[in-house]
Design goal:
Elements (H helix, E strand, L loop, with lengths): L1 E2 L11 E5 L5 E9 L1 E3 L2 E3 L6 E2 L5 E5 L3 E5 L6 E3 L3 E3 L2 E3 L2 E6 L4 E3 L2 E2 L1 E2 L18 E6 L2 E4 L1 E3 L16 H11 L3 H11 L4 H8 L1 E6 L34 H14 L1 E8 L11 H14 L5 E5 L4 H10 L3 E6 L4 H8 L6 H13 L3 E8 L7 H14 L3 E6 L4 H8 L11 H11 L4 E3 L27
Parallel strand pairs: 1-5, 19-20, 20-21, 21-22, 22-23, 23-24, 24-25
Antiparallel strand pairs: 2-3, 2-12, 3-8, 4-5, 4-14, 6-17, 7-12, 8-9, 8-15, 10-11, 12-16, 13-18, 16-17
Helix pairs in contact: 1-2, 2-3, 4-5, 5-6, 6-8, 9-11
């Protein structure tokens, strides 16, 4: 990992954090915080934000914290530190963020020598964010990219939630609710919780299988990787079961109401598109104006067309890059490629659907100049209405190694600059973290002349 010095007043009040073996976090008495972007360790070029409600400090086992000498700005790897009468070998500290926030930098950390690599296991699948101690408490390097209050931490995981879950399970034997109960209580998925709160976006897990094998999959443990952070539904639900959950939510919920087939903690909905098609028709037969949405990898454009024709009018397609090689390296797709995803985006827009891109961001990779250019070209020419910036949850060393030599090159311009460039690429583009209900969508982005005959070239 490379390191570098940059002079910046932004580091002045941000002190380095480190942890002991028990996970107790301390601030360093002398060193300031550094941050990481891709392979580089740098002085923070921008101000951090106060750690928001729901952010959690976490330590990175076996990774040594890297700070900055306040006099020279030189990076310092902390291999030992005195705490009271003890001398400890410290671990680097980062943070995980609540929904609605997008990280801009990674924790600055150094791995041990190869001889001690067993002391630095691959980290669990979380989106580790640079953190430090500011004048008024912990700070994080992140953007508040979606300020919609109905997704706030304070309105989820409330004390009444277990009783709401229990009541729903007593009222319905639908196996989807048993899966959603785990999602809501064990993994604290806000969308799953909404299903029991009967409000806003409701969740419909729809697939136990997938046609991709993403590195560090959140719902299926892979050889050599930590255990998955979630577990998929064991039996794929029937059309009737999915329709029951959808209708119950659409008829009872309040607020910005719609339902979503597919979540990030399951397989790919499109591999079950025929069953979902039946579910959509069942819902539409009773509620012709139902707001139906799907979260997908966009692998099957023809299935997208059939579902859109049946009344599935809102889509969120996930991708980590607009470069085929980097896309394939992380998704490891089976039987499809990035070109198919682009075709699905275009197909959904041609059918009159609202389309969001679920952009899995990673500082120092997604914001490289070449990557930004390709993403902006995709957004501009594809007609996307929204980009949801989601931090990619993976050990930073694993993803940086995977991305090295792949995708668009050039220097990293920063995640904040990436967001600004996306907005300029398609005036009126919505940038946030959550899917929009029909009442929130507005007129959509303004069209602009397409370059190269309107074609999107995946390079």
């Amino acid at each position: 990992m490379a390191s570098r010095r940059t002079s910046s007043p932004a580091v002045a009040g941000s002190r380095l954090l480190f942890a002991d073996d028990a996970g107790t976090v301390y601030d360093h008495p002398a060193l300031l915080a550094a941050v990481r972007t891709g392979d580089e360790l740098i002085a923070p070029p921008e101000e951090p934000a106060a750690a928001p409600e729901g952010a959690t400090l976490c330590f990175l086992p076996g990774r040594r914290p890297v700070g900055l000498d306040p006099e020279t700005g030189a990076p310092v790897v902390v291999r030992e530190v005195k705490v009271g009468r003890r001398r400890i070998v410290p671990h680097a500290v980062g943070a995980t963020l609540p929904p609605g926030w997008t990280r801009t930098f990674l924790p600055a950390a150094a791995r041990p020598s190869l001889a001690a690599v067993s002391s630095a296991p691959i980290l669990p699948q979380w989106a580790y964010t640079a953190a430090a101690l500011g004048p008024d408490g912990p700070v994080v390097w992140a953007l508040h990219t979606d300020r919609r209050a109905h997704w706030s931490v304070s309105s989820h995981s409330t004390t009444e939630l277990p009783a709401l879950v229990e009541r729903t399970l007593a009222e319905s034997a639908n196996p989807i609710y048993r899966q959603l109960a785990r999602c809501a209580l064990e993994w604290r998925c806000f969308t799953a919780q909404n299903t029991f709160y009967a409000r806003d976006e409701g969740a419909i897990p729809s697939s136990s299988a997938c046609n991709a094998s993403c590195v560090g999959c959140l719902s299926e443990t892979q050889e050599g990787m930590p255990p998955s952070s979630h577990e998929r539904i064991l039996r794929p639900p029937t059309a009737a079961e999915m329709a029951e959950v959808a209708l119950r939510h659409l008829e009872r919920a309040r607020g910005r109401v719609f339902v979503s087939f597919g979540q990030g903690c399951e397989g790919e909905p499109l591999v079950r598109w025929k069953e979902i098609l039946k579910a959509v028709r069942l819902v539409r037969a009773r509620l012709p104006g139902a707001a139906l949405h799907a979260n997908s990898n966009g692998s099957l454009p023809e299935a997208v067309a059939r579902l859109a024709d049946a009344g599935l009018r809102s889509w969120r397609f996930s991708l980590n890059s607009a470069s085929p090689d980097l896309y394939a390296a992380w998704y490891r797709p089976r039987g499809y490629g990035l070109d198919d995803v682009v075709r699905s985006i275009r197909t959904a827009k041609r059918k009159g659907c609202w389309v969001a891109l679920n952009l899995l961001t990673f500082p120092g990779v997604t914001d490289r100049e070449g990557e930004v250019e390709r993403l902006c070209a995709l957004v501009s020419a594809s007609g996307a209405d929204q980009v949801q910036t989601r931090p990619l949850a993976l050990d930073p060393d694993v993803y940086v190694a995977l991305a090295r030599g792949r995708g668009g090159g050039g220097p990293a311009i920063g995640v904040a600059a990436l967001v600004r460039r996306l907005k300029r690429a398609r005036p009126g583009l919505v940038v946030g973290n959550f899917s929009r209900a029909p009442s929130e969508r507005g007129p959509g982005p303004r069209p602009r002349p397409a370059s190269r005959g309107g074609r999107v070239e995946a390079r």
